[in-house]
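Running this now, will post back.
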Amino acid sequence: METVACYFDPMCPWAYRTSLWLREVREHTNTVIDWRFFSLEEVNRTDGKKHPWERPWSYGWSQMRVAAWLRREGQDLVDRWYAACGAAFFERGEQTFTSDGAGAVLASIGLSPSIVSSAIDDPTTSDEVRADHDHLVREHGGHGVPTLVFEDGQALYGPAVLEPPRGPAAVRLWELVQGWREFPDLYELRRPKTGSDLARIGSAFSTYLEARAWRTIETPAP
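Update: finished.
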């Protein structure tokens, strides 16, 4: 049985799609997923702007504080929360990044929306999110999500896959990812995005793009 740590930010559509693939891998192998936190708000912060932990509410950071509260009860609860949160935001276009939206996600999995205020009122939840984030940056040069960290200490950014494979195809991709670990000097292999690729990504992410309340630092958005 192998454990893989998956660092994610609930605001990232690519990380969500990777999470769907990882759960499929889990169904067909003995892999255990250890959900960990990484803040895109922090890594993309510009000079002069507040850190996400300095704000009363930060879109991704505050959601991860809720997840940190849940993680104290176990990874299974984080797994259920992330699945519900991702489906609500990326598939149905619900604004999960607000306090009320975060409460609605909790209610959808049978938990009390009051957990949101409990998590935000507890400063140690922010400490836990920051500890995960800082660890990935410090130990593995983490710069984005999804990032996978394996038991041997190797870390891989990705895979960023638009249509998460299922069944044998999911396992095949897992085997390819595992194969990458045989070459520690192989740092990057990337497929360029053509105009048609960007159009397809934009179409697939349309629900998320319409629901979000901000612009990313990248152009185009996908």
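The longest strand covers residues 3-8. More later if anyone needs it.
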